[in-house]
Amino acid sequence: MAKRRNKKNSGSGSAPMELSTEIPKDLPQPMDTTEGKPSNPALNVIKRNRKMKGGIPVKRSKNLRKQKAMEKAISISEKSEEKILRNKSRVSRIQSAKSLYD
User: Fold this and answer.
1) Distance between CA atoms of 70 and 58, rounded to whole angstroms?
2) Total structural domains in the chain?
3) Does residue 80 surpass a pLDDT of 90?
């Protein structure tokens, strides 16, 4: 629970005022024109937009996943090519060193 910081204001200092806003019965009341279930066209638009917005991020995230997968595959292939080149150069250095001492 929150601390009560204003202890002097909370309590028995003065009696509360009565703020009743009663309407006298003899004045004519406005007619109630509300129906059982109010249909607000703005709510229908909001619901329709909410459904449409739900599909957009899914497609965007799917495209991002595809793009990241392609980038990863490209980087893996580049790494393997570099590794193959290093291996070839290593083998050629070893062969040249062996031929010197034979």
Assistant:
1) 18
2) 1
3) yes
